[in-house]
Structures are given as structure tokens and as C-alpha cells.
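Form 7-S
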Amino acid sequence: MLLHSFFVTPNNRKVEAFIKHFDLDVEIHQVNFRERETQTDEFYAMNPMRKVPVLVDGDFVIWESNAIITYLATVFPETGMLPTDPQGRADVDRWLHWQSCHLMPAMGALKLSDEKDFDAIMPLLEILDAHLQDQQFVCGDLTVVDFAIAAYTLTKLGRKMDYSGMPHAAAWRDRVSQLKGFVATQVKVPA
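Output:
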């Protein structure tokens, strides 16, 4: 398997963190944007959106980060990161959709605004905090969901948010930041 990626973005980082956390047999290729690698005909054939991440498994190609991590969790069931029972899987899907439909757009809007109004995103973090009140991870046990959501809360912008009124979300974020995959994909700022 080959992952085309650019790990400094949350959607790419979640996939790379998942791969590195479990030492999965997936080669990771960092695309070269200076060389306009995603603009080639070859890349377009893999992803007409011309974005990363893209996973190639033989003649199967899949794009969209949440689809990639659920595929990897299915192909590598020993990770235990994707429930097989209908309710467990529905819970995972719900939180993956929450991340892609609510958290990601809110973080994107916040990133693009001149004035950083963190109040707009706080209701989402309050939902996460309340949900985590009696559990260590979003779906009870560690799942692909934790990788998907954490990739956004661990961004430079995500670390600037005030979690003081959300002790459960803060503790969860600290817990997942110490996972092997997130430690391995931490962006190291040059001195």
C-alpha cells in the first residue's frame, strides 16, 4: 500500500498518525507541491479533487481521509479501531460525520478569519466535553474517531483554544496527543 500525503494538514496527519501508531505496512509518500505533483494527469487519475491524502492498495484507490482510516482499520482488523457491531459502527460513523461536517468547517472558517473568534467553535467543543465525561475516548475505546477529531484539536489553532471550562475534552486531547502516531507526526518547528 502507498499513501500520498502531506502530513502538516489535519486530514493527512490523522491518516499518517493512524499508520504510524500501529506500524502498518503502508509506504508514505510526501507529495511535492512545488513540483505541482497533485496537478499531474497521473495524480488526477487517482483523485480528481487533486488533493491528498490518497491511498493506493493494488488497483484500488481511495481518497478522503476518514474513508482511508476506516478502510485501513478494516484491512488491518488487528488494530481493533473499527467496531464490527452495527451500533458501534454507527457511533463511529456519527462522530466521523460530526468531525467532517461540523468541526472541520468551523476550524476552517476560524483559520481563514482575520479575527480569531473562538466563541463560534466552543459549542462543538462543549458537545465533545460532555460526551467524554464518563469515558477515556470518544467511542469508549480508542477508535478511528479519536484520530480524526484529534488531528484538528492538535493543530496550531486547536492548541490556542481555551479548554479551561472543558476538563474532559482537555484531558482527552492531552491523552491522544501522547499516542505513538501523534508523537511521530508532530510538526517540529525549526529553531
